[in-house]
Amino acid sequence: MDKLLEFGRKAMFYVRVLSGYEERRIRSYRLQLQQRLQKAEEKKAALQRVPEQIILSEVRRMVQDMQSMNKKLEETEAAIEEYFKPIDKEAEILMKTQLEGEEKTTKEMIKAMQSRALLEQADAEETLKLKSSQPDPHTEDSISSDKHAQVS
Length: 152
Description:
The chain is mainly α. 95% of the residues lie in helices and 0% in strands.
């Protein structure tokens, strides 16, 4: 009886192989294994991408934080500039006033020096004229008196 069952099983196997049923079953099993393998590889690749995605999202967040910080910094700088505008204007006016005052005093000093130089030149010319017109042995007295006149 066992031999008969064994013979029947072998016969059914040969029938399945000859009809292509076993081949299709093997192909479908291989296809299922391939699909499972492909899905496992996709999951593995996705898991490998997860750290990259986490890093990229962290970098994006940091960039956004830095951009918001830069925006706040620019706003703060603008507010500071607005706050100090009146003071800057006053300082500029004071600087201009000071420069104008210094220019005036410089011009006055230059005029005074020029007029003094002209007076000294005129005095020198007068003394030369006097010396050239008087060939006097007392020229030493006149020179010393000229020096006293120039000092005072």
